[in-house]
């Protein structure tokens, strides 16, 4: 019996893979498709290559499913997003497009935008886009937060002038109980957005999934949420590079532990001192870049977020982590972040890790 029988995809993270140009990412997406991966997800960060541009470039050349994991709605006007996603669909030849939406990380995003009323922002954006991409006419006044935030005309309305040629599935990427309940009510599924490993180790994951599932059933008794697991990986034959590569992402992602109110017991399970996280929080609040904050991240902190190291190390970690994902009912595992050399990482994952899962 296979360890995991669901779909396997990859996530490209533009701020960690900043050394790759858009043509490089297209080439790597083709390499991933050739190696049998089903879907490419791309993340969203200010200062780096635009998410929708990267996805469009890939769609124009590579026959593979695509998705946003995740899109930060504060960075994008929903009118423009609807237009762009509908246009992207024309390049996808009927393949489903996943639209993951969440408030954004707690380290970098607040340096650029005020994350006002995140539940309203995420839920209204998802509802707006679902209806817009379904060809409906939308009154701006039906989305009061979006209307106010983007200064939309109170008496205005929106309808796409052309019909999208793909199916869209919407996923929530939040981790708090309110976000998970909203996800269950509004979305088609959820993305454990880079937090799968710490939430599993802290013991929070079963309760998080149950919260979203219960909200989905309350809204529609027979409804089942599709579950996407972002499994952070940093794999390389060069162990030092494999451990160093994730530090920039861990520097801001680990701040979620404070936002989610991790207890002393949960910090102990992680083996991380709370003061280490507070130092990172203070660094970002003082204006540190992600590169500067990364200097505070230790190897052990990396291992609370990543399967990281040599191919043999990563394979053994992934067997355990993906096995748990299967038991918890995840439908799709996206190997995320990948490592310092994407081509090497895709090759190692496809040749040395995927076969042991199947």
SSE topology sketch:
Layout: E1 7-12, H1 22-34, E2 39-42, H2 51-59, E3 65-71, H3 78-89, E4 97-101, H4 118-133, E5 138-139, H5 144-149, E6 157-158, E7 168-172, H6 177-186, E8 189-192, H7 196-202, H8 205-219, E9 226-235, H9 239-244, H10 247-253, H11 256-259, H12 264-270, H13 274-285, H14 290-293, H15 299-303, E10 307-309, H16 311-327, E11 332-336, H17 342-357
Parallel strand pairs: 1-2, 1-11, 2-3, 3-4, 4-7, 7-8, 8-9, 9-10, 9-11
Antiparallel strand pairs: 5-6
Helix pairs in contact: 1-2, 3-4, 4-6, 6-8, 16-17
Structure characterization notes:
This protein is an alpha/beta fold. The chain has a single domain (7-239, 307-357), classed as Alpha-Beta Barrel (TIM Barrel). The chain is built from 17 helices and 11 strands. The protein has helices spanning 22-34, 51-59, 78-89, 118-133, 144-149, 177-186, 196-202, 205-219, 239-244, 247-253, 256-259, 264-270, 274-285, 290-293, 299-303, 311-327, 342-357; strands spanning 7-12, 39-42, 65-71, 97-101, 138-139, 157-158, 168-172, 189-192, 226-235, 307-309, 332-336. The strands form 2 sheets. Strands 1-2-3-4-7-8-9-11 form an 8-stranded parallel β-barrel, surrounded by 6 helices. Strands 5-6 form a two-stranded antiparallel sheet.
Category from helices, strands and their pairing: alpha/beta
Show unreliable segments: none
Order of helices and strands: EHEHEHEHEHEEHEHHEHHHHHHHEHEH
Could you give a short account of the major beta sheet?
A: 8 strands, parallel, barrel
Q: Tally the beta strands.
A: 11
Q: Enumerate the strands of the largest sheet in spatial order, edge to edge or round the barrel.
A: 1-2-3-4-7-8-9-11
* CATH topological fold name: TIM Barrel
Helix content: 40-55%
Query: Beta fraction of the residues?
Result: 5-15%
Number of domains: 1
Q: What distance separates the N and C termini?
A: 8 Å
